[in-house]
Design goal:
Layout: E1 2-4, E2 11-18, E3 21-22, E4 28-30, E5 35-37, E6 52-63, E7 69-72, E8 78-82
Antiparallel strand pairs: 1-5, 2-3, 2-4, 2-6, 6-7, 6-8
Length: 85
């Protein structure tokens, strides 16, 4: 998966959850404006080919400039699509 840092400080992604399942278990630092490919350690079962899916995506991260921790919940957007065959 790709995650982009749109903030002015470096961030450290501490966890990514997809539909309540933890996907990232190691911290990943991302510089301002950088997009980083991240490996996931598990997957969500999509279902049969042609089935639709819709998952909440939640990203926990720390702002390296302030040391504060945050949770990004997608501003109401979900990861949605159709399962491949």
């Amino acid at each position: 998966m790709k995650i982009r840092n749109n903030l002015r400080n470096q961030i450290t992604v501490t966890n990514v959850r997809l539909g309540g399942t933890d996907l990232i278990t190691t911290d990943q630092s991302i510089n301002p404006g950088e997009t980083k490919n991240m490996s996931i350690n598990t997957h969500k079962d999509c279902g049969d080919g042609g089935d639709s899916f819709s998952y909440d995506v939640i990203v926990d991260y720390t702002d390296s400039g302030t040391g504060a921790s945050y949770t990004f919940t997608g501003d109401g957007n979900k990861l949605e699509g159709t399962c491949a065959n």
